[in-house]
Amino acid sequence: MLPKKLNIPAKYLKMGAWIIGVILLLLLVFGTVAYTKRESLLKKVMAKAVNKADSDYDLLVKIGSADFSGLSTVRMKSVTVVPKERDTLLTISDMTVGVKLFPLLFGDVKLSEVNLTDGKVQAVFRDSVSNLDFILKRKKRENAESQGELNLADVAHNIVNQLLYKIPDQMAVKNFVLDVNDNDTAKLSFRVIEANIDDGDFSSTVLVNSGEATWHLSGLLKPGKKQLDVKLYAEKGSVELPYLNNKLHARIRFDTVRTQMTNAHNSGEGYRIEGSWAVHNLLFNHSKIASNDIVIRDARIDADMLVGKNYVALDSSSSIFLRDVELRPYLKYTLKPNKIYELKLRIPEQDAQQLFNSLPAGLFESLEGIKVAGKVRYDLYFHLDSSIPDSVKFSSGLTPNGFKILQWGKTNLQKINKDFIYTPYEYGKPMRDILIGPANANFTPLNEVSSNFKNAILTSEDPSFFSHKGFVQESIRKSFAVNFKEKRFVRGGSTISMQLVKNVFLSRQKTLARKAEEILIVWLIENNRLISKNRMLEVYFNIIEMGQNIYGIGEASRHYFGKHPSELNIGEGIFLANIVPRPKIAMYKFGSDGGLKGYMYNYFRYIGNIMARRGLTPPDTNGYGFYTVRLREGLRQYLLPDSATIDTNAVELDDQLPPIETQDDSKSLFDRLFGGSKRDTVSKTAPSDTVEKSRRELRRERREQRRRENNTEQP
C-alpha cells in the first residue's frame, strides 16, 4: 500500500525556501568576513599568547612568520621558546597545524593535522636550576588561582582529554630532536628521523645518542574512541638507557614494551581508565634492589584504574601476569583528609611448580632449579592511616595444599642438619671458616647452653620462636607503625628463623631481593619442617655474632667471662642477649673495674621482670644479676677509664627495647609482655602504664648516658 501523499500549500514551501536561503546567505557572509579577517584575528590571538607566556611564565616566544595555508590550517616558521635567563627550550624551523572546526564550536581544540620539519627540544639541568623551572611557576600560579577543593577525577579527565585532543589524524614529523643535559654528566639524545600518523596508524624511527641505537615506536592511535596501542622496541638488541646508569646507577633494558588504553570514561563519582601494559625480557639492576641482574621474561598488567575525588586506586578487577601465574592486586592511595595507604594482593590457588617457574630470574638464586609438587595460595593485606599509624593493619599468608619439595635448587636447605662450615662476613669480606659441629672445641650443643642465656635471648629476640612458623605478624605490623612514625628504618620484624636463614644461606647484602629470598626460604623450612626448632636454635647460638670477630655462645662466654656456656648465671645471660643487636660495642658497656655501667640496670630489670612473670627465672629485686656481671680479668686492661666518654657519632649506645610479641592477637600488650591473663588487664588495647613508665625511664637513662659518654674514640 503506497503512503498517502502530503499536500503542502505552495506558499509554505516558498516561505521555507526563503528562510533557508537567508540562513545560507548569512552563513556565507559571516564566513566571507571571517575568512577575510582571519589573518588579523590570527595575529591578535598569537600576540595574546606570546604576552601571556611572557607575563605568566617568563617565556620569550618568537615566531618568524605565521599565516593560513588552508581553511583551518596555520603554518608557522622560525619558532623559538626561551625561558628568561635560561637555555633555549624549543626551536622549530617549519610547522603546520590544522584544527577540527566542529569541536571549536564547543571551545575544544582538536588537532587534525601536524607537519613539522627540523625541530629541537632541549632540557638543561645545571646545579639547582633548569630551563624547565617555568613549569613550577605555572603550578604555583594554578594552585594560587584554584578555588575550592581539588577534584582528582576532574584532573584525570582533563589530562586524558587534553592528551587525546593533541593526537592528530594526520602527522608527518622529520628531524625532530629531544636532548637532555644533566649537569654535563649525564646526556641523552633522541633524534626522530621520521614519525607518521595516517588515519590512526602510527610509526616512527628514533636514533638514540647519535646512532648508538635505533628505536621504533609503532601502533594504532584512535583518540576519538579513546583507544591507544603503542609498542616500543629496538632495531637490533634491546632497548637500554645508559642515562639511567649514569644518573641513577640503575640498569634497565627490555626487548619490547607495549602500552594500551582501551577506554576512559566517567564512572559514578570517579574517572575510570582501562588498559594494559606488557614487557618482554625486562632486565633491571640496582644496588638497593639486588646485587645481580633481575630478569622478568614476560609480564603484563591488565589495569583498571579509578580516580576519585580524593584518591587514586588500582581496582581489584586488575590482573598481573608473570608468565603463567596470575596475581590480583588492589592499590589505593587516599590524599584527604588523611593520607591512607591500602594494598591487597591475592594469588589464587595454583600449581606450585608453575609459581616457582614464573619467579623472576635472579631474584631467588638459591632456589633456582627447585622441583616441587602440590598447590599454593597467597593473600596479603596492608592498611595504614597516616593520622593513626599505630592502627596499621597487616596480614600475609602463603597457604600450601599438598605441597612438598621433590628436588633442591642451588642450595640444600637441610644442609645445617649435619656438620657444616659457616663463613661469617663483615663489610662484604669473609672473616674465617667456622666448623659447626662437635669437632670444633667452641661448638656448644643446645643441652649444654645455660637456660639463663637461652631464656634471655628468646625473651629479647623471639619469645614465640617455638610456636610460630617463621614469622610473627604482630611484630611486623608494629615495625610498620614505628618506622612510619620515625620516617626511617629503626625496627625490624625478624624472628630467629629469619636471622638464621639470612646468616647461613644468603649473602649479607641489604637488598630487597635478598629480603624476599629470605622470607621464601623461611617459609619453605618452617612449613615443611625441614629443620627442627631445637636444631635451628642450636645452630643460631653457635653462629651468632657477639663481639669483634667473636661468633657463637661458646666463644662469647669464654671471651667475656672465662666460662663454659653451661655456667652462665642470670646476669651474664641477660648481658650476652643484650649485645646481640649491636655486638661490636659490647666492651663499651663495662666500667673500668669490669662491672657494668649504671645505665644498663633498667634494661636488666625490664628483661628480668618479663622472664620472672613467665616463670623463666625467680623474681629478683636486685637487678637480676646486674651486680654479678664481671668482665674477666684479662680483658679489663682494654677498658676505658670511667672519666672517658664515647663518640656516639661513631657507635650507637641506644640499646633498643626488645620486640616482645606473641601470635595471640586476643591478648593485650600487657599480657604479651608479662604473660598475664585477660582478667589481669584493664584494657585489651591500651598498653600498661607500668610498661610505658619503664620505657620512659630507660629512654631517659639513655639520654643521660649519651651526654656523659660523648666524643671519645673506640678502644
Q: What would you say this structure looks like, in words?
A:
By secondary structure, this protein is of the alpha+beta class. Among the domains are: 37-145, no CATH class; 411-708, Biosynthetic peptidoglycan transglycosylase-like (Penicillin binding protein transpeptidase fold), CATH 1.10.3810. The chain is built from 16 helices and 25 strands. Helix 7 packs parallel to helix 13 and helix 9 (496-505) packs across helix 10. The termini are far apart. 22% of the residues are buried. The model is unreliable at 647-695 and 707-715 (pLDDT under 50).
Shape, per Cα inertia axes: elongated
CATH superfamily of the domain at 411-708, by name, is Biosynthetic peptidoglycan transglycosylase-like
The largest sheet is:
21 strands, mixed
Structural class: alpha+beta
- The poorly predicted ranges are 647-695, 707-715
How many helices does DSSP assign? 16
The fraction of residues in strands falls at: 25-35%
CATH class of the domain at 411-708, named: Mainly Alpha
CATH architecture field of the domain at 411-708: Orthogonal Bundle
| Average pLDDT reading | 82
What is the CA-atom radius of gyration, in angstroms? 35 Å
CATH level-3 fold name of the domain at 411-708: Penicillin binding protein transpeptidase fold
What percentage of residues falls in helices of 4 or more residues?
25-40%
**What is the strand tally?**
25
What separation lies between the terminal Cα atoms? 115 Å
